[in-house]
Amino acid sequence: MRKINEECGVFGIFAPEKADVAHLTYYGLFALQHRGQESAGIVVNDDGVFRVHKDDGLVNDVFTPRIMETLGEGNMALGHVRYGTTGSKGVVNAQPIVVRHIKGTMALAHNGNLVNSYELREALEEEGSIFHTTSDTEVISYMITKERINACSIEEAISRALKKIKGAYSLIVMSPQKMIAVRDPNGFHPLCYGQRADGAYVIASESCALDSVGAKLIRDVLPGEMLVFTKGGVLSVKDNCDAAKHAMCVFEYIYFARPDSVLDGYSVHEARRKAGEFLAEEYKVDADVVIGVPDSGSDAALGYAKRSGIPYGVGLIKNKYIGRTFIAPGQKSRENLVRIKLNAVPASVAGKRVIMVDDSIVRGTTSGPIVKLLRDAGAKEVHMMVAAPPFLNPCFYGTDIDSKENLIACKHTVREIADIIGVDSLGYLNPKYLPYLAGDGKKGFCTACFDGKYPTEVPSEIRKNKFESKITEKE
Amino acid sequence: MRKINEECGVFGIFAPEKADVAHLTYYGLFALQHRGQESAGIVVNDDGVFRVHKDDGLVNDVFTPRIMETLGEGNMALGHVRYGTTGSKGVVNAQPIVVRHIKGTMALAHNGNLVNSYELREALEEEGSIFHTTSDTEVISYMITKERINACSIEEAISRALKKIKGAYSLIVMSPQKMIAVRDPNGFHPLCYGQRADGAYVIASESCALDSVGAKLIRDVLPGEMLVFTKGGVLSVKDNCDAAKHAMCVFEYIYFARPDSVLDGYSVHEARRKAGEFLAEEYKVDADVVIGVPDSGSDAALGYAKRSGIPYGVGLIKNKYIGRTFIAPGQKSRENLVRIKLNAVPASVAGKRVIMVDDSIVRGTTSGPIVKLLRDAGAKEVHMMVAAPPFLNPCFYGTDIDSKENLIACKHTVREIADIIGVDSLGYLNPKYLPYLAGDGKKGFCTACFDGKYPTEVPSEIRKNKFESKITEKE
Amino acid sequence: MRKINEECGVFGIFAPEKADVAHLTYYGLFALQHRGQESAGIVVNDDGVFRVHKDDGLVNDVFTPRIMETLGEGNMALGHVRYGTTGSKGVVNAQPIVVRHIKGTMALAHNGNLVNSYELREALEEEGSIFHTTSDTEVISYMITKERINACSIEEAISRALKKIKGAYSLIVMSPQKMIAVRDPNGFHPLCYGQRADGAYVIASESCALDSVGAKLIRDVLPGEMLVFTKGGVLSVKDNCDAAKHAMCVFEYIYFARPDSVLDGYSVHEARRKAGEFLAEEYKVDADVVIGVPDSGSDAALGYAKRSGIPYGVGLIKNKYIGRTFIAPGQKSRENLVRIKLNAVPASVAGKRVIMVDDSIVRGTTSGPIVKLLRDAGAKEVHMMVAAPPFLNPCFYGTDIDSKENLIACKHTVREIADIIGVDSLGYLNPKYLPYLAGDGKKGFCTACFDGKYPTEVPSEIRKNKFESKITEKE
Amino acid sequence: MRKINEECGVFGIFAPEKADVAHLTYYGLFALQHRGQESAGIVVNDDGVFRVHKDDGLVNDVFTPRIMETLGEGNMALGHVRYGTTGSKGVVNAQPIVVRHIKGTMALAHNGNLVNSYELREALEEEGSIFHTTSDTEVISYMITKERINACSIEEAISRALKKIKGAYSLIVMSPQKMIAVRDPNGFHPLCYGQRADGAYVIASESCALDSVGAKLIRDVLPGEMLVFTKGGVLSVKDNCDAAKHAMCVFEYIYFARPDSVLDGYSVHEARRKAGEFLAEEYKVDADVVIGVPDSGSDAALGYAKRSGIPYGVGLIKNKYIGRTFIAPGQKSRENLVRIKLNAVPASVAGKRVIMVDDSIVRGTTSGPIVKLLRDAGAKEVHMMVAAPPFLNPCFYGTDIDSKENLIACKHTVREIADIIGVDSLGYLNPKYLPYLAGDGKKGFCTACFDGKYPTEVPSEIRKNKFESKITEKE
How many other CB atoms are found less than 10 A from the CB of residue B195? Predict the structure, then answer.
C-alpha cells in the first residue's frame, strides 16, 4: 500500500443561521470537481450534530437527491473532493474525516501532503494510536487532538499542532461551533474565502467555487495564516506567516486550477496565455495556424497566436460526453482511445503547417496519437509547443506527478521526444519564464518538479521505505 | 401522449466477416451522443441471429461491459441514439426497433419525422394493425412489411414503401443478410458512409462517427438515394433522387452537428465561423473583445473576431462535468443554474466592452443570466451576436424547436429582446446569409423554422388533432 | 429463439372510482411472485390514459417508490409476473403488453400457452403483420384487433377472437373503459375474482392475491367463461363453457400454487396433505420420523405422518435469504449449492430412520445432495416419498416441464433412480390418486405430463420446427 | 447519536495455504445473515496484505461477483454481518474494522456489547485518542494496541486487554500471521470452531455456518477461552475460564439462532420444541389444531402439539419473497402489512379452535393483525402460546430489546394483553423452564431481559448519559 499523493479540493461554509448549506456545498464541490474525481464528501453541522455522507465517485453521482435530503439543513458544512491514486481506492480514505475526541467532534478536509508524516505517524503509533486510513488527514487529526487536551480552544490546539507539521496543507477544520481555515507557510496550494449576500462565509480551494455559490471573493488565505470563523466574526491569526517562504505550486496555474479561477491575485487563464506568449517569444516557427489541445492547451494557444501573429484556429474537438466516467467497454476492439476522445477539424488543418499547443507532456504516450489525428486530417507540418518545462522530479506536496521511470523527459532529449511523438519540431517552456506567469517575477513559486529546488526539506528515502515496508510486516 | 419530434443519430456497420461490430457501434454512437441523450440501442446481427439491447440513458451508461459481452460478435450491427421529448419517455420508444415479419427479421434505426404518418397509421389501423410505440419507425416497419409480401427482395420492399412515405428520414434497415441506408429526397438530415481498413462499411449520421472507428469517409448518401450493402458489395439506387428538392436542415450546421463533422461536403466548424463573419459584416460594434458562449458559440466568435479585427478572448468557462446527466439535487436552494454551468473569466472581460456570440436564442431565458455573469465580472458593455436568425416557425422534420408560444422572437421585437436579456445591443444573423454558410448559395437548404418556407406539404392541424385525441378516446 | 413456455401470474383491479390501484396491484403481484420471477409489469388506466412500467426483475425491485409515484392513481390497473426460460429474456417480452389499435388502446396480461399460435402467427404475417415479441400475447392482441374492426364492442371482439384460439389462457384485457377476464374452456390455469370492501373488483390467478389486498373471494372464473367489468357491474358470458372439457392442471395443486390459495374450490394445502396420505397408504415404511423438503414438501410430509402414525419432524432448514435472487458469486470454490440453501437439523434425524417427502423429481440432480446432508447429520436410513407421479411428457399449456432428455424418469426405472439419489427406498405418487387430490375424483384434470393424455390437440412437430427455423432464415 | 446495541455474526477462516477464503467467508456470512442484515464485510489476508470490502446491505447485495474478484485469494479471511439500529446506520460502523498500529495491521470482528465501554472510551480520549465510529470494536482495537506496545505477541496483547474489558464479546482478531478467537467469561453469545477436509480451520458464531462451508464442528469456544490459530496449529488459552460464570443468552435459543445450529452442545430446534412442550404442560387448552407463526413459532408449535396430543397444522403461510429487503412502496394505500407478509390457510383453521404459537411478544403490535387473519379465515377460537416469558428489562449485552416504554409486558397484565391482541386466552412460557430448554437445568443462562438478574455489573445511567450528551457538546 503506497502513500497517497493527491490533488484535492476543499470547501467550507459558515452561515449566520440555519440554511441549506448542504446544497451550497454540493455546488461548490461541483465547481471543484476538476481537483478530484475519486471520491466526494459533505459533512453538515446542524448546531453541533454532524451528518456526513461520502463515497467513491463524482459529486453528482455520490450526492443523489435522496442523500441530499438526509443531510438536511445546518449552520455549517464542510466538503471535499479527492483525486486518489490506484493504491488508495476505497471509501475509507474519502474525506472529510469526522472524529470524536475528548472535547467533542471535529471534521477535517485537507488538500496537500505532509513531508514529515512518517515521523509523526511513527511517534503516534508508539503511543498506541491506531489508524483507519493511510491519509495525512488522520495524522493531522491526532496531532490536533493531542494538543486539544490542554489547549483552551480548538484554534489553539490547531495552532500548536501545526508547529509540528511540515509540508503542504490547505486545511479546513469544523468543530461544533467554529470553522477554521489554515494554509501552510509556503502556501503550496490555493485557499481563498469570500462572502455571500446573505452573510455566509465561504472558504474554497479556488475562487471558481465561490462564484458558483454567488459569494464575492474577499481575498486568499495568506500562506501561514489561520482564519477562525465564529458567530462573532472572522479572526485572522498570522503567527506563522513569512512572506520569504511563499512557494505556490506553479503547476496550479499551468494545469490544475480552472481557468476562471483567480489564485493569489492572478488569473489562471492569463497565466496560461502568458505561457503561450513566452513560447512564441522563444520559438519562432513558420506556420499557418495555431491550435490548442483541449481543454487546457487552448489558453496557451491563444497567447502563442497573439504574440506570433499566426492565426488561432480550432483544430481538435473533444467529445463532451467523455467525462471521467468513460469506461472503454471491452478489450476485443481496443480502438484508439485518443480517437474516441478527440477528433481533428479538417477545415482548420488540412494542407496547413500547424502549431499544436498543449499544457504539458508527462509520459508522452498521448501526444503521438494526437499528432497522427492532425496528419490524417491533412496537416502538412505539426510543431508542438508545451506550456510547461519538462518534468524531471517527483512532487512531495500533494500532486501526483508520475514516477521518474515514467517521465519521458528523464529518459530522452527534446530531439528524441520530438521523434517519438512524430512532430516536426518541439518546444518546451523555458523555466526562466515560470516566475512571470503569475506576477512580476518577484513572487516565490514551487517549481521543484521542473528544477528540483524543493522549498522544504523532503522525506528521506530511508524513512519512507521503512514506513512502507511496515505496512505488510509480518508478526 | 404527443407525437414525438426528435433529433437522433444512426450508425450501421457491415463487416466482411464476423467481427467485434458491437464495440465499433458503441464507439460510433458515443461520437453521435450529442444527437440524442434519451436512449441508446444496439442490434448485433450474427449471421441472421439478432441480439439487441436498448435502454434509456447515455451510451456509456446503457452499454456496460457486461451488456457488451452479451451482444457478442457479428457481421453487422445497427445502433441509434435518441433525443426524446418529455411525452415520449420510456424504453418502449427506444430504437433500433426489431420486428419479425413474414420473411424473417428486420431492424430499423431512423432519424427524422414523417409528415404523413397520421394518415399512414390510420390506414394501417383500419386493416387491424396494432402499434406498440408512438414512433414513425414502427409505421415505416409496417409499410415495408406490407410491401415485402409481394416484393422479391427487402430493398424492393423498402423502395416501394418509401414512395408512400413523406417527410424526413435518414434510415438504416438491417435484414438477416443486408444493410440498406436511405435518405429522403430532400435530404433533410445528414447521412454518410465510409470504409475501414479491414473492409467494413460504416454508415452514420455524421462523419465524426466514421472518424471515431477509423473509417474513411467515402461520401454522403445522396438525398433520395438508397444504398444496399451485401457480401457482393455496395449498390446505389437513385430512382428517388432529384437535385431540385435538396433541402438539408440549415440548423444542422448552426447547432446540431459536431464541429468536426463534414456534412454534404461542408465543414460544420467552417459554417459556424462564416456565420460569425457575416455577423461582423452586418453589425459593426466598437468593442474590446469577442467571446463565445460555450460550446457552440465559440466557432462563430472566432469568425466575428477575424472579420472585425477585434481580439478573440475566452470570457466564459463551462464546467466540464455538467454533461447531460447533471441533476440539480434539490429545490431548497435553487441556486442560479447558469452559474453552476458557466463562469466568467474576469481577466478577459473586466473593464472591457464585450461582444458575446451565441449559436441561437430559443426562449431567451438563459441569455440574461449569462450576460449578468459578464457584468458581475466587470464587463463595461455587453453586445450579443446570434449566429442564427430568429426562430419563428415549428419544425415538422424531426427537430424539437419549441412551440410558438415559447419562442421569444414570436412575441418580441429585437429591441425588446435586447432589453429583456440586458444587452447593450443585439444582432441576429440575417437570413439572407443562410445559403452561404455551407456552399456558394446555390445549394438548397431547409430554413423553414426561420422563414416558414416548408420544402414539403406539412401535416394539417385538423388531422393531427384528430389522431391525438384518439389516443385517449373512450370505448 | 425458442418459443416461450411460461408459468405466469395475472392481476387486475376495477375500482368504482379513482384510487390507488397501482399499489394494490403491486401487493397482488407480490403475492403472486412465486408464479413468475423473471419480469413484472403494471399498467394503470387513469380514465383512458394508460401509464405503464415493466422490467426484468422481482416485483419489489422493479417497482421502486419513485416508479410507483410515476404510475399515479387510476380507476383500473392490470399487472403481470412472468417466469421466462433462458431464451426469452429481455424486457421486450415483459407483460402486460399495451397496444394502440383502430379503436383506441388495450392492455393484455396472459397466463398460458396457445397450441395453434404458429398457425395464427403465420396467417397474420401473411397479411403483413409485424411482431415485436415472441409471445402468444401479441398474437392474441392481433386476433382481437382484427375482430375489433367490425365488432360493436371490445368484449364482442374478444369473444370472436377466442373462437379461433386454441390452448390455455387465463387472460385479462383492459380497455379504456372495461376490464375483461377470460379463461379457456379447459380451465387449464386458475383465475378467480372477488371484491374489496370499497367495492373494487379484483381478478387474480390465485386467491392468495385477493387476500393480500383485502378482497373477498367471490368465485373462480369458470372454464370458458368471460367476465366483463364495467361501471354498470359484472356481466358473465358463458357461451364457451362446457363442463365436459374441464382439465385444470393438476400440477398447480402439487407445486405451482401457493398453499394458502383455494383453486376451483379446493385448498392447495389440503391437496398436498392428501398426496402425502395417499403415499402413506401405498408405501408402508418402518421409520422413526417423517420430514419434508422445504418449502413445498412439508405439506405432504404432514399428510404422510398423520396417515402413517410416524411422527412429523423438522429435518431440513432452508436459508430464508436465498430468494430467487441468490447469485453464487464465483466459480473458484463452487461449494455445494444445496448446502448453501438447505441444512439438516441433527437433533431431528441423527440415529433415525427418516422418511423424506418432496413435491416432485424432475432431473433428479438435487435430491442426491439433500439425502447426503441427512446422512452426514446421522440419519440411519433415508426413504424418499414423492408427492407426484414421474414426469414423462412435455407440457404444451404454459408450464416449463423440462425436455424429455432431461427428465430422469424417462431414462431410468424407479429402482435405478433410488440408487442414483442414494435412498433406501423410493415411492412416487400413484397416478390413480391424482383426481382425488382436489375433489371426489369426478372433476377433470390435465395430467398429461404424467400420462400423456392431452385434453386438446397439440402442435405438430413439423409445424413447430418450420416456424422456429424461420426466425433465423436468410434472405 | 445513541450507543449501538447489536446482534451480529462473525466468521473466520484460517487455511493451511492460499485458497479461495473470500468465497468461503461469503458462504459462511450468508448462513449467518439472520444475525445481521444491516451491513456485511470481508477482509482477506493475503500473506500479510489485507484486502477489505464492506458496505450496508445484505451479503448477496454487498458482495457482487466483481467485488469478490477484487478480494482475491488468501490464507485467512474474516467476515461480519451486523444488525444495526436506526441511529447507527452508515458504512462507517460496518465491520470488520481494519486498523494499522505500531506492530502492523489488525482486523477485528465482534459480536456483543461491552458494559464498561464508556469508561474505557473516556480514558482513551483523555490520552488523545480519536474515534471514527461509535462501536465497541474500535474501543477494543485501542485496548489491544495499547497493550501491543509492550507485549511480545498479539495474543498476549489481547489477553491483557481483555482483562480490562467487561461485558459480552465473541471476537475474532486477524493479524498478518495469526487468527485469534475469544469469548467472554460469561459466554453470552455463541462461538464455535471446526475444520474442513482440506485442513482449514473455521470459526463462526453458529454451527450452521460451519455446515455451509463443509467444516466439521470440533467444539464451541469455551466461555473465557482464547484460541490462537497459527501455521503451527491451534493453541487454547484458558486463563479467563470460570465455569461458575456461564451465562449464555437464552434468547439465542428462543429466537436469534438458526434452528439447525447447535450451540454449546444443544440443538436450537430442540430447545424450541421443548419450549412448546413446557407450554403444553402448563396451559391445557381444548382445541382442534396447533399452528405456528412462521418462521420461528413452528418449532414450538410442534412441541406443543406433541405434548398436548392436539394435531399440528399449517395455518399461516409466509410470502417467501418478503426478505428483509421488502420496501412497502408508498404511503397512499398502507395496506395491512401483516397481510402482505402472512396469509391464513382456511382449510387448516376454518371452523376450528386454534392454538397459535409464536416465539415471543415484544411490542404486541403484530400479533393482533395475525389473529385477525385467522378469524377472517374462519377460526372459531384463537388461543396464543408464547415460547418465551414476557420481556421486562433492557439488555446490555448486545441484543436490541426494545426500550421499556415500548415493551407491552411492562405496561399491561397478561389479561390486558390478551384483550389487546384479541385472543381467547394467552399463555407465556414460565421462566422456571428456561434453564431446561438447553440442558438439564444446571447450566447457567443469562435471562436478564425476563427476570432482571444481570450476570455482570451494568452501566450506570449517569455515566451513560454523560457520555452521550458529550457527542453533541458545544465548544
Answer: 16
Distance from CA of B139 to the nearest CA of A (A): 32
Residue D40 forms part of a structural domain: yes
Report yes or no on D173 lying in a domain. yes
Domain that holds residue D64: 8-247
Query: In degrees rounded to 5, what are phi and psi of residue A317?
Result: -115, 135
Q: What is the ipTM of this complex?
A: 0.90
Same domain, A375 and A299: yes
CATH code of D297's domain: 3.40.50.2020
Give the pLDDT score at B86: 41
Tell me which chain B residues have a C-beta less than 8 angstroms from the C-beta of A212: 335, 339-340, 343
Helix (H) or strand (E) holding C347: helix C346-349
Whether residues B320 and A320 touch (CB distance < 8 A) is answered with yes
- Interface of A to D at Cβ within 8 Å reads 1, 48-49, 52, 90-92, 97-105, 125-132, 134, 141-142, 145-146, 148-149, 153-154, 175-178, 470-475
- CA separation, residue D125 to residues A149, D129, D245, D379 (Å): 9, 5, 31, 60
Sign of the C-alpha dihedral computed for residues A351, A354, A358 and A363 taken in this order: positive
Q: What is the pLDDT of residues C293-316, one digit of tens each?
A: 998 899 999 999 999 999 999 999
Q: Is C265 within a domain? A: no
Q: Do B347 and A68 lie within an 8 Å CB cutoff?
A: no
Grid cell, residue A5, equals 499523493
- Considering the domain architecture, whether residues C197 and C302 belong to the same structural domain is answered as no
**Cα–Cα distance measured from residue A296 to residue A278, given in angstroms and rounded to the nearest whole number:** 16
Q: Which chains touch D (3 or more CB pairs under 8 A)?
A: A, C
Task: Report the alpha-carbon distance of residue C240 to residue C222 in Å, rounded.
Answer: 10
- Are residues D86 and D175 part of one domain? yes
CA distance C38 to C258: 18
Q: CB distance B104–C475 less than 8 Å?
A: yes
Q: For residue B362, what pLDDT is reported?
A: 87
CB contact under 8 A, A146 and D128: yes
Give the cell for residue D249. 443468552
- Dihedral angle sign, alpha carbons of residues D251, D255, D257, D261: positive
The residues near B228 (Cβ < 8 Å, ≥ 6 apart) are B155, B178, B179, B180, B234, B235, B236, B237
Q: What is the pLDDT of residue C6?
A: 55
pLDDT above 50 (res D123): yes
* CATH code, B38: 3.60.20.10
Q: Last residue of some domain: B195, B212, B247? A: B247
Final residue in a domain of this structure, among D192, D215, D247? D247
CB–CB of C447/C434 below 8 Å? yes
C238 lies in the same domain as C347: no
Q: Which of C97, C471, C474 sits opposite B177 (nearest CB)?
A: C474
Do A29 and A109 fall into the same domain? yes
Q: Do residues B203 and B76 both lie within one domain? A: yes
Does the annotation count B152 as an active-site position? no
Residue B224 corresponds to which cell in the numbers above?
A: 433520395
Q: What percent of chain D has pLDDT over 70?
A: 91
Q: Check whether residue C210 and residue C295 sit in a common domain.
A: no
Same domain, B291 and B391: yes
For chain C, the C-alpha Rg in angstroms (whole number) is: 23
Q: What is the pTM of this model?
A: 0.90
Cα separation, D180 vs C157, whole angstroms: 75
Gap between the Cα atoms of B54 and A375, Å rounded: 36
Cβ pair D343:C260 closer than 8 A: yes
DSSP one-letter code for A352? S
Q: How many domains does chain D have?
A: 2
Cell numbers for D20, please give them.
Answer: 479461495
Q: Of the ranges B327-336, C10-19, C32-41, D243-252, which one carries the lowest mean pLDDT score? A: B327-336
Residue B222 lies inside a defined structural domain of this protein: yes
The contact set of B with C (CB < 8 A) is 1, 48-49, 52, 90-92, 97-105, 125-132, 134, 141-142, 145-146, 148-149, 153-154, 175-178, 470-475
